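Colleagues,

For the teaching module next term, I've prepared a clean inverse folding example: a structure given as tokens, and then the sequence designed for it. I'd like students to try predicting residues themselves before seeing the answer, so please don't circulate the second half yet.
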């Protein structure tokens, strides 16, 4: 019974997160200030470090293997960060262009 409920929760949360997180990123990227749009990528970077480091530390491997595992883990987990940053920069570019156009219109009125 518990496993069935857990499966239903997972089947509902995964699609919501695939749609909801990018929509939240778009909403935050459209804000006047640039900092809100950087919240989600920063959180994912911090989570990736928290997830990768304990999994690699304490193992009996060479330093080079440890570094390779840390870099590979951080790169793989940060694929959503790259996606969110691309959303952020595309919307900030549009916001910047609109702001420049508005500034030019105000200068034309004077």
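(Answer key — instructors only)
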């Amino acid at each position: 019974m518990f496993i069935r409920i857990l499966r239903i929760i997972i089947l509902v949360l995964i699609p919501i997160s695939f749609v909801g997180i990018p929509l939240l990123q778009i909403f935050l990227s459209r804000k006047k200030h640039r900092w809100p749009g950087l919240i989600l990528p920063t959180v994912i970077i911090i989570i990736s470090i928290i997830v990768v480091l304990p999994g690699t530390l304490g193992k009996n491997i060479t330093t080079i293997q440890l570094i390779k595992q840390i870099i590979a883990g951080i790169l793989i987990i940060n694929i959503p960060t790259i996606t969110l940053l691309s959303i952020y920069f595309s919307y900030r570019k549009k916001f910047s262009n609109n702001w420049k156009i508005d500034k030019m219109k105000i200068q034309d009125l004077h």
